[in-house]
Amino acid sequence: MHALVFDRFGGPDVLRWAERPDPVPGPGQALVRVQCVGLNFADVYRRNGNYHLSGSAPWILGYEGAGVVETPAVGDALFPAGTRVGFADMPYANAELVAVDVDKLVPLPDGIGADIAAAVLLQGLTAHYLVRDSYAVKPGDVAVVHAAAGGVGWLLTQMLKAMGATVLGIASSEAKRDAVISAGADAAVDYDDLLPSVKALTGGRGADVVYDSVGRTLGDSLAAARVGGTVVFYGMAAGDPDPVDPRVLMDRSLTLTGGDLWNVLTSAAVRRERAASLFAQIRAGVVTPRIAARFPLQEGAKAHAYIESRGAIGKVLLTL
Length: 320
Known about the structure:
Elements: E1 2-6, E2 16-19, E3 29-39, H1 41-48, E4 59-60, E5 65-71, E6 84-87, E7 97-101, E8 106-107, H2 114-134, E9 142-145, H3 151-162, E10 166-170, H4 174-182, E11 187-189, H5 194-202, E12 207-212, H6 218-224, E13 225-233, H7 246-251, E14 255-258, H8 268-283, E15 291-296, H9 300-308, E16 315-319
Parallel strand pairs: 9-10, 9-12, 10-11, 12-13, 13-14, 15-16
Antiparallel strand pairs: 1-2, 1-4, 3-5, 3-7, 3-16, 5-6, 6-8
Helix pairs in contact: 2-3, 2-8, 5-6
């Protein structure tokens, strides 16, 4: 098979398309022929040497993809050869063939192609738990979404609107703010305008919930929440947040909660149930993924350069 590999840490130019041995599935694993891979900033961080990598050089990036089962797992009848599947957390996905734990496979229903699955499984399931588990959204809630033009933010905005919330999206450029409005947000502003915009939108009360994936903005997120409000912290795209004085939480009865997808997907049944709910929303038109660009997997260096430009609005896909 061929895979997108690299032997040393560095910029996009370290990536190359090369032959690698076909993976040998272990117990409880199926061999999947990949059709589409989702590119995430975590892949960039791993290429730079900032994130953990499995195995030794040459490394293969990627954790999220979709395709067709080529060789079923021994004794498994749920995913026979030819079954269309997606997965969101198996390493070495930037390759023509990937060995995937059966427990991590998600069947794709009619109307959900490999490109849509690769675009939404990781970020869509994250948005799904953010509006249900981290904070139970109610009609009439005012929600602030940081990085609202990003992969999670785009889907999160749509889910919040479908649940009856008023959404203020935060984005760093005019083009991104226009995109946030097109996703259904009631208003979209720059980071410098966060606090006055929340006050104007809520009559000075503050937001019911603030979703923060930026990190460095956590102080502003806490200030933007109403008395008794909630801040959901689930990412550090701009770096670690400053420490939080617990008295800030006590004085205004705030809730600060963290969120991580892998603490939510606790079993194969839960994973598939949540994925089915996400796919149903997409098929019903409640959630519409946005594809920023598609690149052939062998041109992965170009895709990495594009996502690092910070100009992408939506998901970047690598196709085979």
